[in-house]
Amino acid sequence: MITLCGIPLSNYYNKVKLALMEKGIPFTEEYVKTHSHDEAVLSCSPLGKVPFIKTPQGALCESQVILDYLEAAYPGTPRLIPAEPYAAAKVHELITYVELHLELVARELYAEAFFGGKVSDGTKQRVARVLPDNIAAFKRLAKFGPYLAGDSFTMADCAAWVSLPLVAQATKIVLGEDLLQAGGVEWKPYAKMIGERPHAVKVAADRKVDQERLLGAARAG
Description:
Elements: E1 2-6, H1 11-23, E2 27-31, H2 39-42, E3 52-55, E4 58-61, H3 63-73, H4 85-106, H5 110-114, H6 121-141, H7 155-175, H8 179-182, H9 187-195, H10 198-220
Parallel strand pairs: 1-2
Antiparallel strand pairs: 1-3, 3-4
């Protein structure tokens, strides 16, 4: 049995959770805060990052490593990546663009957008300069036909569904404009479509519960 470790607020945790559910792989969940210094956590995820999984063979960290493992270790489950090598590479290409060129850049705004902090004007200017070009590049690759890589649901959709709304929301809140929408990426209908999948409904509901729990704790404190 696989144990998924992390927090339901994490987009990368939810990327893995959605993939597990879509593939029908049994798993349990263990709440682990990010950047823990607990030796039990560091032995599984040396940077203390979430998510990570525990398997009968040992632990694995980094969300894409986990998804690739699941695809190889559970061949009898629904595929989340094409069997043909070039098509599979195109899915990985999309994931790289979503996570490295969009989400990681926008993540610099999250402290101010979502957590009550502040980011410097220099950071805002850098994101506002870099992200539009990255979005234009992503738009050239993304098919939205209706799924990110074409006519089939893939692990690229697990990555995009949890991250594209964050990019849009963070830029709207901090920079005053949804840069995805401004760049011609119609992410809202796509996110709605994926969000109506039964497993995505469950992931979103669990995320909302955790968000409300944290808000309640913040008010109480």
